[in-house]
Design a protein that fits this description.
This protein is α/β, with parallel strands linked by helices. It contains four helices and seven strands. The strands form two sheets. Strands 2-4-5-6-7 form a five-stranded mixed β-sheet, covered by helices on one side. Strands 1-3 form a two-stranded parallel sheet. α3 crosses α4. The radius of gyration is 21 Å and the shape is globular.
Length: 175
């Protein structure tokens, strides 16, 4: 009599534990801070920061608009290092000031280790439909006159996509 009851109780307990773990893993992650820096200002033969000194603030605002914010300092943080702004690979932008490649590295960490630390590159490229996009880049459709916004928003969209894949059970980003 007790053996079937024990089996049912054990199965119920395991099922509830699995369900609660699955629900926990699907919780959206809130971020206490988003920091954006650039390491391109120190690079030789790079002039993007002369043309776009506001790129860090614009990228921070674009990412903040796409992820959940929090006032809790124990929540994870996003740190972005913009490493390259180029036009077809050339970091000396021409007088038109346009660029079609934006590269950076995103680090996500949590002071209380509620999620595993995660770092990933984000490479955005705007190319015409008939051009081949370099391997490792996410393509965005170029738009005449608003390329800057397209590049910033494309980068922020990719960060938000990766954040959406965070597994709050502590195993980083699932793919």
């Amino acid at each position: 009599m007790f053996k079937p009851v024990k089996t049912i109780a054990l199965a119920t307990g395991v099922s509830l534990a699995a369900l609660s773990s699955a629900a926990f893993a699907d919780e959206p992650v809130s971020f206490s801070a988003i920091d954006v820096d650039t390491s391109i200002s120190a690079a030789q033969d790079a002039n993007a920061m002369e043309y776009y000194p506001q790129i860090t603030e614009d990228l921070k605002a674009a990412v903040a608009a796409r992820v959940l914010g929090s006032d809790d300092a124990s929540d994870p943080t996003i740190k972005i290092d913009v490493r390259k702004v180029s036009l077809d690979g050339a970091t000396m932008l021409n007088d038109g000031q346009e660029f079609n490649e934006l590269e950076g590295v995103v680090n996500i960490s949590s002071p209380d280790e509620s999620i595993a630390a995660r770092s990933f590159p984000v490479n955005i490229a705007a190319y015409a439909v008939d051009q081949v996009v370099p391997e490792g880049y996410v393509a965005v459709a170029p738009s005449e006159g608003v390329f800057y916004d397209v590049m910033i928003n494309g980068f922020a969209d990719e960060v938000a996509k990766q954040v959406g894949n965070l597994n709050t059970a502590g195993s980083g980003v699932s793919k």
